[in-house]
């Protein structure tokens, strides 16, 4: 681990994402110290059970934290800023607040050092797509530490902030689209005669195999579709049914709809 790597990370909000970040970082940087601000009694107990240190005042919290992860709900940022702004000036902030821009966080907390991360539900097992955006003037140490936090919960993609909404569409919301497709595939298997649990297990394995093939051979999905779809065979008939239902266009529209909604929430 590099000498400049953060030794103490502050977590504001110990819900699903806050706890996922702590668990993920413990896997890759087990010596990291975590200090937590959390008002909910049940989540405080969870934070304590995970070996983090609960801090009662924002002054102590910001003094102790080399980098602060904002893992509260977006609607809570104004109240948090009212209480914390006098202590947060100049702090390094990693925000995972959906629909909340770097500019908004920077102005609310009085610091130019703000990174924005956009993870998904898969953060809890360390396999999320994580969009990461930084202001142009971000120093390299902060960038490396923020990317290390992102890597602890998945695969980071360093992108301009204007593309964070697209990350929401393809990943943050997209994971639900993947669940919906797996469910539909399993229902198809059930309609064809399998019981649902068996069909779902098969659908999961098919998805895992498809991703593994893409990664092994560095090819596009269409390359494999043409390999599977033999002339006048079963697959081409199934693909025709998918397109009769506007499958490709519908998935594209779903991603764009989610991205546009993310943009609306930010405006």
Which consecutive residue ranges, at least 5 long each, have pLDDT under 50? none
Ends distance: 39 Å
Identify the CATH architecture of the largest domain. Answer: 3-Layer(aba) Sandwich
Q: Give helix % range.
A: 55-70%
The count of strands amounts to 8
Structural class: alpha/beta
Number of helices: 12
Q: What's the domain count?
A: 2
Instruction: Assign the CATH topology of the largest domain.
Output: Rossmann fold
In CATH, the homologous superfamily of the largest domain goes by the name NAD(P)-binding Rossmann-like Domain
Strand content: 5-15%
Q: Which strands sit side by side, in order, in the main sheet?
A: 3-2-1-4-5-6-7-8
Largest sheet features: 8 strands, mixed
Indicate the radius of gyration in whole angstroms: 22 Å
Classified by CATH, the class of the largest domain is Alpha Beta
Q: How do the SSEs run, as a string of H and E?
A: EHEHEHEHEHEEHEHHHHHH
Mean pLDDT across the residues is 94
Shape: elongated
